[in-house]
Amino acid sequence: QVQLVESGGGLVQAGGSLRLACEGSGIIVSNQFVAWHRQAPGKQREWVASVTRLGSPNYADSVKGRFTISRDSAKNTVYLQMNSLKPEDTGVYYCAVRSSRGTFDTWGQGTQVTVSS
């Protein structure tokens, strides 16, 4: 059974940092296209960052320079390091694996990030 489990969310003050983790089970995330998305209250889910199979990262303009996506093959985990957090970064963060069809078919359950001003 393929499963993604996110962790690391929490409550932090503006300017603070959090590191989210996305651990794979039944799937090797370190050789997959993995993306982080987020959904703020009352808003549509949006893409935040992704890492390609070859390890190339990409970021949404809103997080560029503040967030870093990385992966640890030994732990079968993809991370999202979030620095200089802003209240507008608040939301539920999800990791997802993109299939060979180009669609995100496998999602984690999400982890809540709340940034207070």
Characterise the protein shown here:
There is one protein chain. The chain is mostly beta strands. The chain contains no helices and eleven strands. The chain has strands at residues 3-7, 10-13, 18-25, 34-39, 46-51, 57-59, 67-72, 77-82, 91-98, 104-107, 111-116. The strands form two sheets. Strands 2, 4, 5, 6, 9, 10 and 11 form a seven-stranded mixed beta sheet that branches. The protein is globular and about 40 Å long.
Characteristics of this structure?
117 residues, mainly beta, 7-stranded mixed β-sheet, 11 strands, 53% strand, globular
| Mean pLDDT rating | 96
Please trace the helix and strand order, writing H or E for each element. Answer: EEEEEEEEEEE
Please identify the oligomeric state. Answer: single chain
Number of DSSP-assigned strands: 11
Helices, by number, come to 0
Q: What's the N-to-C terminus distance?
A: 40 Å
Strand content: over 45%
Shape, please?
globular
Can I get a quick summary?
The chain has 117 residues and is mainly β. Helix content is 0%, strand content 53%.
Q: What's the structural blueprint in terms of helices and strands?
A:
Elements: E1 3-7, E2 10-13, E3 18-25, E4 34-39, E5 46-51, E6 57-59, E7 67-72, E8 77-82, E9 91-98, E10 104-107, E11 111-116
Parallel strand pairs: 2-11
Antiparallel strand pairs: 1-3, 3-8, 4-5, 4-9, 5-6, 7-8, 9-10, 9-11
